[in-house]
Amino acid sequence: MDLTTAHDTNIFSYATDQARTIVYLHYVDLIICFGILFTVIGLVTYATIKFKARPGDAEPRQDEGNVKLEITWTVIPALILLFLGVLTAIVMNSVNPPVGKLQADVIVNAHQFWWEYRYPKTGVVTANELYLPEGVNTLLEIRSADVIHSFWVPDFGQKMDAVPGHPNHLFLKPFARGLFTGACSEFCGAAHSLMRIMVTVLSPQDFKAWTESQLKVPAAPTETEAVHGQELFMSKTCVQCHAIAGTDAKALVGPNLTHLADRKTLAAGMMANNVDNAAAWIVNPQKYKPGCHMPKMRISKEEAHDIAVYLEGLK
Ligand SMILES: [Cu+2]
Questions:
Q1: Distance 55 CA to ligand 1 centre (A)
Q2: How many Å lie between the centroid of ligand 1 and the Cα of residue 61?
Q3: 223: how many CB neighbours lie within 10 A of its CB?
Q4: Which pLDDT belongs to residue 2?
Q5: pLDDT digits 0-9 by tens, 66-117
Q6: What is the pTM of this model?
Q7: Ligand 1 centroid distance, CA of 109 (Å)
Q8: Which domains does the chain have, with CATH numbers?
Q9: Which regions of the chain does DSSP assign to beta strands (E)?
Q10: How far is the CA of 49 from the centre of ligand 1 (A)?
Q11: 232 CA from centroid of ligand 1 (Å)
């Protein structure tokens, strides 16, 4: 699976305006916390050396508290906490502003164990590989079709839970192009760790071209193997769960396969997308993703090959 072109991720990296704001808040927190740490270490070290008892010293003066000092060390931390609290509230409001009646640009519907992406404004439907335009503040509505999942691309900042019956929202304004990776981050069942997220950020022009290509209905197959593959696909149980535009397959249980050939990977990052891997997956999906909701069916290697040739011709 070639995800080597993905951006490197670490705790300080960020690729959206929202994530940058969060990382900057983190820096302010860190600087203040280190400031406190070094002040305390400094004072303790100074006091330990300066006031060390020496042989022959008299008994030290016995004090009973110091009101001025106690007020100081209560008020200063209270002010620091107030400052950080207000700063955090400002950042939260700028990163997650009220959504109001805004319509989402992308509806992210989490499933055991894959992601459906719908663009309601254009009608594009795809799975596992999300595309976003650079420099555009995009509103994602995060939903779940079954259990609680969590949408998390580390370079985009926040994790957002996908809760059945309770849509959550996430604004993303990416400022860098390229591939970003993430994963489901709420335990959701057997194949939870095999539920990867891939996000490609394109220039606005390329994003428009991508949208147009996704809206095209793929041409009917002409090659013998692919024609046979299509017949098999339509006559086997595949149509109970999958949709392919321009055909009778309209089910929404599994990923929409209309433009399968455009995906880099199969089954949410499990393997590189090519005819051989698709055929192997179709013969026995449970081998690659134990517990996934695509059953092992009675399909021979030859049949699976022809179906795979058909699906990999869908552009
Ligand atoms: Cu999940």
A1: 67
A2: 64
A3: 12
A4: 60
A5: 899 999 999 999 999 999 999 999 999 999 999 999 999 999 999 999 999 9
A6: 0.90
A7: 10
A8: 7-47+65-203 (2.60.40.420), 224-311 (2.60.40.420)
A9: 106-111, 114-119, 124-127, 129-133, 138-144, 149-152, 159-162, 168-172, 178-183, 196-202, 265-266, 271-272
A10: 56
A11: 31
